[in-house]
Queue: 4 jobs
Job 1
Amino acid sequence: MRRYGSAAVISAFGDGFSYLAVPLIAAGQLGAGPRELGWLTALAWLPQAVFSLPAGSWVARRGRPIATLVVADLARAALMILVAIAAVTGSLTLTILYLATFCSATAAVFFSVSDAAVLPALAKNDRFARSLAIMQANRTVGGAVGTTLGGLVIRYASAPLAVLIDAVSFVVSATALRGVHLPSATAKTSTSSLRLSEGLRCLWRTRPLRTALAVTTTSNFFHLGFHALIVLYATQILGLSAGTLGLVISTDTIGVLAASALAPALLERFGNRVGLAAGNIIFACPLLLVAAATGPVMVAAGILSSGFGGCLQNISVGSTFAVSVPPHLRSAVRGAYQSISFGVRPLGALAAGLAGTWVGLRPAVWATVIGGILAVLWMVIPAPAATVRAGGETSDASAS
């Protein structure tokens, strides 16, 4: 468990560098505007829509999630090295950046659906929510530190160096993951006869997951639009430097740490459904401060508060997933879930990029924030909790 957690933190640390570096390279070195950044963000999430379902089924049939995690990390490292070299030599183009982003995101899909089978196998059933909260906190801290240092590296050195640091983090993560050993029963489990549609069928049969899917799909559409614009909005409209922006974005760590500490007790007391609703509201509403911001203080306040809600929402969904899905279907169901919930993200990014071009960056940011707030309306529809019967069958039950 320690090696797995270390790999997650290291990878998130490197991602923080690229989170700022890639769009800043596109905007500063390649002259990208809102539309081009919308396309870049869309390509970063398009593989979720295209490959999540078949990748989840493939990983479930293959039954070797750790090996898939390692290969995915190494593939992303190679792609980030390519981008860094091309940027330094002056041969980087938007086309190359688009392709590298798409391929890296495809590797991330295989990583994500494999990861869905690993944490539940390593964590004890009665401590899964706490383990998920700790993992969420560790990843967020790693990402926040990476974003903060990434902003400083970009300001005082160069954006390509920040991308190269991300590549190194993937290599270190892959090395750590090679030492992770799953329980023998989990490591040897494969379902060679699993049908491609089985993940979708399980997802559709489980009402709590259907509700979570509706909420997160709506939220993801608008929130990715927000993230497609935030770097350009903060630097061009608010006049923030890369260093300041890195510090401001990293303030969500405070909110995530608070939510990670409180979420297990909150979910035990109120249940996953209330946690999902509360998390979504707190995730979306504080971003109104970002849309109305005139400087870094309001942006930091909004992102900090939103970080609390986002973490609570993610832990609620993860806990619902863990108790509702049979172990042998976790990768397949995660793939089905992501193909829809993450699959809308490219559309949100493209819509936001077009809106930023047509009506301006600030009105477009307002639209993404208001749209994200509407996601909680899906919670009006009652959804009883699922139970897992012997043999891995799911059924609807009364909500707790």
Job 2
Amino acid sequence: MQFRAELCDRESVRVIRLAGRLGREQLPELIALCDQAPKALRLDLGDLISADTAGLQSLGMLRRRGAEFVGASPYVTMQLEFEQANHDRALQAGGGRTGNLAAQTDKKTDTEDR
């Protein structure tokens, strides 16, 4: 199954429904949709089958920036929890270059916000 991202904007929230397999190739599309959100962001993961490492890191970054996730399967939930644990370990290990794209992106964003 291929990846699909579908917009379902509501009055106070941008909802993006993800379906299929999220991989590095689909990230520009997903990030563009999320960056264009003028309001709160909710990702409906009910039809997301899986995500590669880059996809999981990007989803983790979006969650840490305040996106709400709904409908994730137990498998996708487990993958996201594992990604968060890796992110937390990388930060505890010194916060330098960790090899974790999401951690590096979050650190860059924190610096830019100051």
Job 3
Amino acid sequence: MDIAGFLASVESSNLATAIRDSLYLFPLIESLHVLGLTLVFGTIVIVDLRLLGIASIQRPFTRITSDILKWTWAAFVWTATTGMLMFITNANVYYHNFFFPNEDGAARACGVERGDI
């Protein structure tokens, strides 16, 4: 199966159709996606501020990262999942959009850097 056939089959799936045809489902998923992104970046900022010595300097760095990074990765998985749910609703258009390969590559790089993907 070529990429066009795969994208067409993804777009015509029952899940994609349900999301696309619902008045509230796509906006709900999009809102959850933004909340996930906020959590990812917010937890990264907490670690960065600790590294800079601006916040939580009384706590050891290893303790902060062990507490925060599980939330970061959970939010990353949440954001990737909601992103895929939004993608399948109009896969052919999103796939051929100039920005999609850049966004997808950046998301993969985050996981590869950590060694999880």
Job 4
Amino acid sequence: MCWRVGTVPPSHNRGFAALPPAVARLAGALNAELVAAEARRAEQVPSPDSMHLYFQGLAWLNKGRNPGNVAQARRFFDRSLIADPENIDALVGSARVDALEGGYSFVPDPRAALAAAEVKLIKALSSVADHALGQMCLEYVCIATKRAAQGIAECEHALALDRNLVNAHSLVGLGKIFVGRAEETEAHVVEALRLSPRDSLAYLWMTNAGLAKLHLGSWEEAVAWCRRAIEAKRSHPNAHFWLAAAITNLDQRDEARTAVQVGLALNPSFTVSRARAAWTAMSDDPTYLAGLEPVFEGLRMVKRRVGSVSRAACKRR
């Protein structure tokens, strides 16, 4: 079951609250700065409590979605839950880590990670039904587990109540890829960026726009979106991998090899076979599945060249 986002009174909703557009634009940019400030203060506390540890975990997530940062975030969220098992924010944080590890194939069994995230999120939302971050994460899990249509519907309901919900726009855009309507993704990303151009998560939205363009075979546009994402946050491995796939399809193999090398430095455990299996398992839509093939075939070709160059370099040494 996916819980509906944004169905509680705005005064009680801790992340999807209705905000004037100007305030909404500032909120996304300031959030990461405030979290970082809280985390720095928490580092100076001799005996950190559960919330001190929670903010440190959140700060690690904000540094970028790669395995090292996510693992550090898990460590702090787990410690936070040990300090206070009733800390719902920490429980949601732990679930976000599971969802990221599953959604980005950071672990050998992505589906198990997504299932673990869902269990934690349902538990958290059973205690605090209006936990907006928990709601948002659960919608992401729905989208990544063959329930994209349901996740999209929940987010669209929230948007009918408040068009300024940037995270709902971004999730709808992502979900459209999984239901074979990637041509609609860009409009949602553009709207999210209009509402919150300096948002700390904007690089993720841009990466999703790049992925949508890959599904459509619009290689030049995919390159443009992926480069924008990398400029916004260079520590996100998928932006580098999708860039490599796009550039490979434009026959710019040397630049594609460089992009893959950067991506592998950020996510050394990445393999095309694992990623292909994980992304294929996220949707049964035939248009979506067909759109994956040129993405992973491009990555397979360039990654093979990266491996050949690496082996040759080792032999020379």
